């Protein structure tokens, strides 16, 4: 097994990102015990930066620290998923309304370009999901509320723990795209309430896919 070379600066942050991506890609499944010795050896590092990285992931809700048992990938319950979707629906629907009311033509065009990319990638679930995330991130950036950005970023990390299940549900990609089309239509029509309602419906449908 090859050793991954990491730069010395902010080593624990780089380790945290390595583990974060393994969790998001479900290489490390929810409930999995994180073998510190094995991972430290694999990355060619000591356990000190690894433990600092685990603290970062614990603060994000991706890792759960258990006394005398070590670190585990967080398991999300149905209630956790419902709570996260509820908050995301509130925050992102507010953002959609703000963008519909105040975005420039150029800013809306940047969202439309991402929406068009979604249309082109409906046959590839992983690419569709990546572009979908870029669309939502861009929308939040345009809404220009850094506190909302921070909260949503943390919530989306937790949502990704469960995303693998809903992403591949048959028909969900086409449904999601149609929901995005309604959001985009409301944005282009500069209808704040229409954008708010469309985004809330998008999350309501996403929740049904995530927790049948």
Automatic annotation (TrEMBL):
Alphabetized Gene3D superfamilies for the sequence: GntR ligand-binding domain-like (1.20.120.530), Winged helix-like DNA-binding domain superfamily/Winged helix DNA-binding domain (1.10.10.10)
Keyword Transcription included in the entry's annotation: yes
Annotated ranges, domain HTH gntR-type: 9-76
Keywords carried by this UniProt record: DNA-binding, Transcription, Transcription regulation
PANTHER family for this protein: TRANSCRIPTIONAL REGULATOR, GNTR FAMILY (PTHR43537), UXU OPERON TRANSCRIPTIONAL REGULATOR (PTHR43537:SF5)
Name of this chain's protein: GntR family transcriptional regulator
Lineage: Bacteria, Pseudomonadati, Pseudomonadota, Betaproteobacteria, Burkholderiales
